[in-house]
Description:
Elements: H1 3-12, H2 16-22, E1 24-26, H3 29-35, E2 39-41, E3 47-50, E4 59-66, E5 71-80, E6 86-92, E7 96-100, H4 106-113, H5 117-131, H6 170-178
Antiparallel strand pairs: 1-2, 3-4, 3-7, 4-5, 5-6
Amino acid sequence: MKPTKVRNHQTYRALNQVISNQICAPISKDLRKKYSRRSVRIMVDDGVKVIRGEYKGIAGKVTKISTDSNSIAIEGIKQEKLKGDKIDVYIHTTNVIVTSLNTDDKWRVKILEKKPKSKIKSMKDNAKRKDEPKPTSKTKDEPKPTSKTKDEPKPTSKTKDEPKPTSKTKDDKKNSVKK
């Protein structure tokens, strides 16, 4: 299948779950420490701050979410049309950072406070390391173990006086059978 066809399947025919995961944004440092996560799915009434683009530095609450373009409309950002009407400006979710979360939804709070599996695994590893006794470090006063010295003779497996054992070859076996 052509890459363009695969890409179109992934973007235009994606499941709602996949589209929902794409409407995520990184969260501020204080929220990272509190929830031990890097990003979160954006919802209406979340506080965000624009960090890139024409509207950089503007902060406000999310008023609308567009799943088609993975973008959001922020409370203070509007654009004027020629006739004088004001319309919402949609900003891509990768260009914002979440500064405050809407905690009205109890299910969302429960998921945010649940620790990720990687965090739990690292906590278990740290606990194991604390329980193990630490090896004592060597001091300068202790002598280093010495390897073989020149005075010691090397052990030899064979000596020259012993006769070598002979093995019979096929020809020797045939000759001994004929006799």
